[in-house]
Amino acid sequence: MRYVRYLCIAIFAIALIAVALANRSMVSLKLLPTEVSGWFALNPEIQVPLFLVILGSIIAGLLVGFVWEWIREYGQRAEAARQAREMRRLEREVARLKGEKYQDQDEVLALLDQAS
């Protein structure tokens, strides 16, 4: 199974390298539209290789997806935490009730009864 994972990673890496090599030409990346940049007397434009734009977009999309999913699953995580707290409370109550049950008995008999 480990080798299959390594094979998938290698194929993905080769594909990324092929995309990077095929898209090395420089492109002009504007950070603001021309109309808006005139308001601020800025012209934020940089020259970057096209593969950086492509890979940066993929990474930004993944990050947005991860954050979106983390926010979406908040209710499920909160419910799981509530159930875990309830389970710990019930376990403590069961231990307390068992202690009360064996309070007046001999210690050896109480241990034998608890083991069965």
Automatic annotation (TrEMBL):
Q: Which terms are listed as keywords in the entry?
A: Cell membrane, Coiled coil, Membrane, Transmembrane, Transmembrane helix
- Specify the Lipopolysaccharide assembly protein A domain's residue ranges: 42-94
Annotated GO CC locations: plasma membrane
Q: Pfam families of this UniProt entry?
A: LapA_dom (PF06305)
Looking at the UniProt entry, the stretches that span the membrane are 46-68
Name it.
Lipopolysaccharide assembly protein A domain-containing protein
Q: Which domain of life is it from?
A: Bacteria
Where, if anywhere, are coiled coils annotated? 80-107
